[in-house]
Each structure stands twice: as C-alpha cells, then as structure tokens.
Amino acid sequence: MSLYDEIGGEETFERLVQAFYEGVAADAELRALYPEADLGPAERRLRMFLIQYFGGPSTYSQERGHPRLRMRHAPYPVTLDMRDRWMRHMLAAMDTLDLPEPQAEQMRDYFLRAAHMLVNSDDGIPPTAGHGLPS
Ligand code: HEM
To answer: Which family does the record claim for this protein (predicted)?
Structure first.
C-alpha cells in the first residue's frame, strides 16, 4: 500500500493543500511570489504533484509532464526566508490533519529536503545564521 492510501487518499491531500494555501494567502511576502491572482490553480498543481509523489494517481505528469521542480521554481526567488515560510505553512497544515506516524514523519522529511533543494536565491542572511556555528 502506498503512503497515499495509508493516509486516506485524495481527501487527505485536498485538506493538506487547502490548509497550506490558507497559510500562503495570509503571508503577504510569500504570497507576492505567486504570479496568479487566484491561488486555486497553484493549489491544484501542488495537490496533483503530492498525490503522484506519494503513490497516488499520476494526473500531475499527464497534465504537466516531468515535475522538474527545480527548473519550475527558477522564475521565483526562493530564498532561505521564503523556504522557511513555505515550510512553516506546510508543517502547520500537516498539524491540522493528525496523520499517523511514521507516514507523517516521512512527509515532513520529504518537504524539508525538497524545500532545501529548491533554494535558488541569496537573501543576504548568512546560511549559518542561527545555527550556533562560528561565522
Ligand atoms: C517541498 C517543497 C516544494 C514542493 C514539493 C513544491 C511544489 C511545487 C509544484 C508542484 C508547483 C507547480 C509546478 C508546475 O506544475 O508548474 C510549484 C509552484 C510554485 N512553487 Fe513550489 N514547491 C516547493 C517549495 C516551494 C518553496 C520553498 C517556495 C518558496 C517561494 C515555492 C514557491 C512556488 C511558487 C511561487 C510556485 C508557482 C505557483 C504556481 O504553480 O503557479 N515552492 N511548487
């Protein structure tokens, strides 16, 4: 059984991504990066992608082709600050769902790695800031 099935299939991903985009909508600085006035289409793309990634139907690739996430984020300045905002909203959305472990941990782990991989712009904050390392 896929993680998609284990956590409740499409309905769970609908709730996750809806809660996530409520967070984005309320975060003016992150919201400003999203090009469309209506967040609905972006919500649908993220939902389809996550469903596919976690083992559900592959509608995302049928409609959009290979995900190539890094390339698709190239037009948007993903700074450390934006990555952290994105993560905060996703973790808050996860918390609204009360998902089983270890599936929730597997998802948090994926989001952390993927969000880190998508950073493509420097916002001037030293990468070690706040990590207690000598700068
Ligand atoms: C786990 C990390 C992430 C995943 C899995 C993810 C996934 C996606 C996907 C699937 C799309 C739609 C691509 C397409 O088909 O065109 C997208 C778009 C976008 N993402 Fe991300 N993303 C992540 C992190 C971030 C971060 C950290 C930012 C911070 C700025 C960000 C900002 C955007 C923006 C502005 C778009 C364009 C909205 C749209 O679809 O029209 N993403 N992302």
So the answer is: Belongs to the truncated hemoglobin family. Group II subfamily.
pLDDT digits (tens, 9 = 90+) for 62-76: 999 999 999 999 999
| pLDDT exceeds cutoff 60 at 30 | yes
Give the number of other CB atoms < 10 A from CB of residue 107.
21
Task: Please indicate whether residue 119, judged by its CB atom, sits closer than 6 Å to ligand 1.
Answer: no
Q: What is the pTM of this model?
A: 0.91
**Contact, 99 vs 12, CB < 8 A?**
yes
Homologous superfamily of 3-117: Globins (1.10.490.10)
- What whole-number distance in Å separates Cα of residue 56 and Cα of residue 35? 27
CA distances, 97 to each of 19, 41, 57, 92 (Å):
9, 22, 21, 9
Q: Which residue has the tokens 């300045």?
A: 77
Answer for the pair 93, 17: CB distance below 8 angstroms, yes or no: yes
**Left (φ > 0), alpha (ψ -120 to 50) or beta: where does 125 sit?**
beta
**In the chain, where the domains are located:** 3-117
